[in-house]
What we know:
- This protein is α/β, with parallel strands linked by helices.
- The protein has helices at 2-28, 33-36, 39-42, 78-90, 104-109, 124-129, 169-178, 191-200, 210-219, 247-262, 265-274; strands spanning 54-59, 62-63, 67-69, 75-76, 93-98, 115-116, 130-132, 137-139, 141-146, 162-165, 185-188, 205-209, 225-228, 236-238, 241-243.
- Residues 60, 63, 67, 101, 118-121, 165, 168-169, 191, 209 line the site of arginine (ARG).
Amino acid sequence: MIALTTRRFLQTAGLLIAGLVLSACGKSEPPATTATTAAPAASAAEPAPAPAKVYVVGTDAAYAPFESQNEKAEIVGFDIDVVKAVAAKAGIEVKFVNTPWEGIFNTLQQGDRDFLVSAITITDERKQSMDFTDPYFDAHQLIAVKQNSKVAKFDDLKKLKVGVQTGTTGDEVVTKLQGKNSTNIKRFESTPLALKELEAGGVDAVVADNGVVINYVTNNPAAKFKSVTDKAFQPEQYGIAVKKGNTELLGKLNKALADIKADGTYDQIYTKYFGAKPDSAAAPASAASK
Ligand code: ARG
């Protein structure tokens, strides 16, 4: 009996010691970082390093050349390249998520998106509910009409049916021109839908950002559109939007934006999409019309 008990004791003790040694070895393998994690986490099965945060970037990817989806459903465009370059500089990881324009700002509030890049014009009104980086692009509104249209200036749209994307600065200027209660303003959930309606003859004009109008007119010759500008259109600037008060992220993005402007990366991206460097023309997107 005694011998058995002793043997059992020794066996058990041996196993215990072996276990301790093994676990000690196991623990000593990962670098010191494990020791800095909280005690409960250390007992988890896998001492995997904390995954780097992936910043979720919302964009309404129906706004070429700034953001759109290619044949492989990848989100591409000027804004995307800018943010990728910014992320590389800031040392952060990003993931783009196609997000409808209507409600895009809510996704920031709710924390579903960490920041937004979507050819978003910095406006005083928007600044009340979100924060913007320094501007990264100059823009203005532009009118798209059929080539045979008599529209020659913005004021000519006063009594016409005009298509806009809901809640954009294009919507704002047309609403101001025609009045809040105008029934001639046709609001669409995307700018391409408004342009399709112009093609179909359902509206007489579309008002949207110059870069997008020029891109569409150029790439859809069968639509037989032309663009009409007006000096009444105020200069606009795009910014990247973060949740109000997220100064830490804002600082990182601003620093990285300045870096890509300083080292030529920004100019390279700009030239890729618009064919010339930003300051070489007064209207940035005009180069795309050639
Ligand atoms: N710049 C305009 C605005 O801020 C239009 C932006 C629309 N962007 C988009 N991806 N649909 O209102």
